[in-house]
Design brief:
D-amino Acid Aminotransferase, Chain A, domain 1, 13 helices, 708 residues
Length: 708
């Protein structure tokens, strides 16, 4: 057996052909799951399976009893896991069959341990004699053939039913992965998130959500299967190594890693890993790497010289797995630990992590970084094209100051690696990158509106404050507007508000750790004079005992009223717990939107007093949704669409379709993180893009209709 290299379709076909004489069914290329982007899907259509940390394996059984175990890339594992052959044959009891599942090993606590599986595989490669000290088990999660029946086109629920009907004579060796239905969750008073926490506590990698109606699609990575890992892992190509020092002398001290850009196919430098190895693994790796040595690095672009001092380069054939905390916008894995070699993967399968933005081409001469000017036209493809925090020589962003060019402005950024969202490992550099990517969609909602920001300089676990006045030291090119107090009428002391109209201003604000951007529902003219309100906003705030699901049901009723009054409402999540509804309006009175929104809120509160309230007092809000009409007061501001929120995760106030409002059945259905908000820029696109084209006269408040 080869210990390295790419195992392509020709290997799989060879394995299939070799066993064709015994009647073993043909090999089926496995169906793969997509990442869910951090949002675990919810609803009656979904089933949840434990995500396993083992070797994906197709089990093919002939009617006469012959058994073949094949990895996901066609590697023959039958001899290596020979103790599974007889228990698997007994499952089918004289019938042919094909199972999809994983081979796993357990530690002394009964938890699946990929490291132990790797140790066993290492002894197998070294042809160590004697009994195996690590027992393995095959856990099946799909049935692809039973007897003469091909089940690939049957729905998951049908395949699952047949799978669970099979006998398991030796569950110590062969068993079935549990699958939890939505009804089972509800009966157990659990949410998918609560199930995920239990899964993590039990030591599993996470969950895989599968549509009950989904067919089996060989070789495809489908939206019908979505994986939600508890820990962040990625596959990497081993491109070099450093000899160990001191107590590690004579073995591998660390590995230099790479992965392929999914667009260009280039092998990209990702950094290194020096922890997570056992002594045996370090020695085994050196034995595997020395025959692969080469004189030069294998990357498409040279890695930073200071990163690779003392490196010994190898042919990029070995694939491994690492766990990591963050992927910086400078293109490096951070806080990595080694998990083990993946002989069931080929180098071409090791791709940049999903959170990685494509890097700009390296510049031959160091100079301040220039990002492409960002226009404000609607985005039709993914807007992540460049990061303003990438250093000229493609080194990781420093923790000190960095000069970058954004459009035609030179900015100085600082502390880019500082983590602002500790639970997500989301750094200030990633905040800046998000706002750069979403700028074409966000800026129209900020243009000519005085912005109030909420700053978290020490991250969301630290102190925060609302900031209206433009701080000292702001660049002289930043547009500001001087208003007397707050609101379009003005009162109190003068305030110098920033006007964040373009990308340089947006990056400047993000560099201040201004995570949240709040704006009023009115704009200023070129002379800085407030105009009448041009937007109506109705804020749906869930009281204690209610959620955004309840907000959605009330929002549907609010929509009916607004549409009947000639308005075109747009829904957006608040990025926290509730919803906002916007409509473009014409009115000459600054107080008219509040009066209209208050009338709508009181109407619904009279119609549905048990579920809706128009009263601000918290005592009146328990078990009800508050229709907060006061957000239309000229002195108040509302979170801008596409703004981040200062919560545990980098969630975003995200515009949504009315179909999504109607379909919402669980709070997690309408939670969107920064990466998901950027992905939605391509599909469903910029939902509020045509908001201003639907402007209509603000109706007379309901209570005043019919009066002279």
């Amino acid at each position: 057996m080869r210990a390295c290299g790419t195992f392509g379709p020709e290997v799989a076909m060879a394995a299939t052909s070799q066993r064709g004489q015994t009647g073993v069914p043909a090999w089926v290329e496995p169906m793969l799951a997509k990442a869910d982007g951090g949002r675990l899907p919810s609803g009656p259509a979904w089933r949840y399976e434990d995500k396993l940390d083992g070797y994906r394996c197709a089990v093919r059984v002939a009617a006469a009893g012959a058994v073949a175990l094949t990895s996901r890339n066609g590697l023959d594992l039958t001899a290596e896991f020979s103790e599974l052959v007889d228990p698997i044959a007994r499952v089918f009891a004289g019938r042919a069959g094909v199972l999809d599942g994983e081979v796993v090993a357990y530690d002394e606590r009964g938890r699946i341990d990929f490291g132990l599986l790797q140790e066993r595989r290492g002894r197998h490669r070294r042809h160590v004699d004697g009994p195996h000290r690590v027992d393995v088990r095959f856990l099946a999660f799909d049935l692809l053939r039973l007897g003469d029946a091909d089940l690939l086109r049957e729905p998951y629920d049908e395949r699952r039913g047949l799978l669970t009907s099979l006998p398991m004579p030796d569950p110590y060796r062969v068993d079935i992965v549990r699958a939890i239905t939505h009804d089972r969750l509800r009966a157990d008073r659990l949410t998918p998130e609560a199930l995920l926490r239990r899964t993590a506590d039990a030591g599993y990698e996470g969950l895989v959500a599968k549509l009950g109606s989904s067919t089996y699609q060989p070789g495809h990575r489908s939206d019908a299967w979505l994986k939600h890992p508890v820990t962040v892992t990625t596959e990497v190509v081993v491109c070099g190594w450093r000899p160990g020092k001191g107590g590690l002398s004579g073995s591998v001290g660390g590995l230099l890693l790479g992965a392929h850009d999914p667009v260009t196919g280039d092998l990209v430098y990702l950094g290194d890993v020096g922890t997570g190895f056992s002594r045996t693994q370090r020695a085994d790796l050196r034995s595997a790497l020395e025959p692969l040595e080469r004189r030069t690095h294998p990357f498409a672009a040279a890695p930073p010289r200071e990163d690779v001092v003392g490196a010994r380069w190898v042919e990029p054939r070995l694939v491994g797995e690492v766990v990591y905390r963050t992927f910086t916008r400078g293109g490096r894995l951070r806080h990595t630990a080694w998990r083990g070699l993946r002989e069931d993967r080929g180098p071409a399968e090791a791709l940049l992590p999903p959170s990685a933005a494509p890097r700009p081409a390296p510049r031959p001469v160091p100079s301040p970084v220039t990002t492409s000017p960002v226009t404000t036209s609607p985005v039709t493809t993914s807007p992540v094209t460049a990061s303003p925090v990438t250093a000229p020589d493609d080194t990781p962003p420093p923790t000190g100051r960095l000069s970058v060019r954004v459009g035609d402005r030179l900015l100085r950024l600082s502390n880019l690696d500082k983590i602002l969202y500790p639970k997500a490992g989301f750094t200030k550099g990633e905040v800046i990158a998000y706002y750069t990517a979403i700028a074409p969609l966000l800026l129209p909602h900020l243009r000519n509106r005085p912005v109030t920001v909420v700053r978290w300089p020490d991250g969301v676990d630290g102190q925060s404050w609302f900031a209206k006045n433009t701080p000292a030291g702001a660049p002289d090119w930043l547009r500001t507007v001087r208003l007397t107090g707050s609101g379009s009428r003005g009162s109190g002391d003068p305030v110098e508000y920033p006007l964040i109209d373009d990308l340089p201003a947006l990056v400047w604000a993000a560099n201040l750790a201004a995570l949240e951007l709040h704006v009023p529902q009115w704009t200023v003219d070129p002379q800085g004079t407030p105009r009448p309100p041009d937007r109506l906003v109705i804020d749906l705030d869930p009281g204690e005992g209610t959620t955004i699901v309840d907000c959605c049901r009330v929002a549907e009723r609010v929509r009916d009223i607004l549409v009947a009054d000639g308005l075109t409402p747009l829904a957006t999540t608040s990025g926290s717990k509730g919803l906002q509804l916007y409509a473009a309006i014409d009115t000459a009175r600054a107080d008219a939107p509040s009066a209209y929104a208050k009338a709508v809120a009181r109407l619904l509160a009279r119609e549905s007093p048990d579920t809706v309230t128009a009263v601000m007092a918290k005592a009146q809000r328990t078990g009800r949704v508050l229709l907060d009409w006061s957000q239309n007061n000229p002195a108040k501001t509302t979170i801008a669409p596409y703004s981040l929120r200062g919560r545990d995760l980098p969630t975003v106030a995200t515009p949504i379709t009315w179909d999504e409002v109607r379909a919402c059945r669980h709070p997690s259905d309408l939670v969107f993180t920064a990466d998901q908000a950027v992905a939605r820029a391509a599909d469903p696109g910029d939902l509020p893009a045509g908001l201003d084209t639907t402007r209509a006269p603000l109706p007379t408040p309901v209570a005043e209709r019919g009066k002279a």
